[in-house]
Write a structure and sequence with these properties.
Rossmann fold, two-stranded parallel ribbon, 3 helices, about 15% strand, binds ligand PQ2, binds nicotinamide-adenine-dinucleotide, precorrin-2 dehydrogenase, Met8-like, NAD(P)-bd_dom_sf, Sirohaem_synthase_N
Length: about 130
């Protein structure tokens, strides 16, 4: 749900993992290629989650995001980009290298610290350590 700036980042990672992505959002960021996702151009409705296993509540409206996490069933993974306490999983920062894939998490404490550490590890690997 949601097709903005943060949705675009999450979608990029999903497409790299060969996921089949559906976006429900009245607007779509220019960073999301409409040919690579199934875009349903409207606002979220409460029965939209049926059949999906991985759900991102990524609208700019905190109340809609909360509604999405409330509508999710126990067997669905749901991530509220605006409120970590309503998520049942977190994304990790990922370093991809020809020999390694390294995931970095602060378990929700500081996404910007995870990003900084990622960049330091990337720079360290490039130096050829
Ligand atoms: C690692 C990364 C992966 C990814 O997104 O794929 C990721 N966030 C990234 C970046 C980033 N996020 C934010 C900023 C702005 C600066 C800042 O505020 O720090 C930046 C930096 C930027 O954008 O440059 C803001 C922010 N993030 C969350 C909230 C809501 C909240 O905290 O409740 C808010 C709004 C807070 C507010 O508005 O007050 C929540 C989450 N973000 C997480 C992951 C999960 C915990 C990860 C962990 O424990 O380390 C968690 C809990 C849930 C989730 O999203 O899965 C990715 C690294 C990008 C990369 O790899 O380059
Ligand atoms: N988790 C993270 O990594 C992270 C990082 C930075 C910011 N944030 C949080 O993200 C939020 C802002 O996200 P953004 O920058 O992507 O916003 P944005 O304004 O770029 O995008 C919001 C999107 O939601 C859509 N939308 C609005 N109402 C909707 C509805 N009822 N149903 C479906 N779609 C709807 C809009 O059309 C738009 O596409 C803030 O709450 C901020 O705290 C999270």
């Amino acid at each position: 749900m949601g097709g903005g700036r943060i949705a675009a980042r999450k979608i990029q990672a999903l497409l790299e993992a060969n996921a089949k992505v559906t976006v429900i959002s009245p607007s779509l960021s220019r960073k999301i290629d409409p040919k690579k996702v199934h875009w349903i151009s409207r606002e979220y409705l409460s029965n939209d989650l049926t059949g999906y296993s991985l759900i991102f509540a990524a609208t700019g409206d905190l109340l809609v995001n909360r509604q999405v996490t409330e509508d999710a069933q126990d067997n669905q993974w749901v991530n509220d980009i605006s409120n970590k306490y309503d998520s049942n999983f977190f994304n990790v920062a990922v370093v991809r290298h020809e020999d390694y894939v390294i995931g970095i998490s602060t378990t929700g404490k500081s996404p910007s610290a995870a990003k900084k550490l990622k960049e330091r590890i990337q720079a360290w690997l490039v130096k050829g350590n």
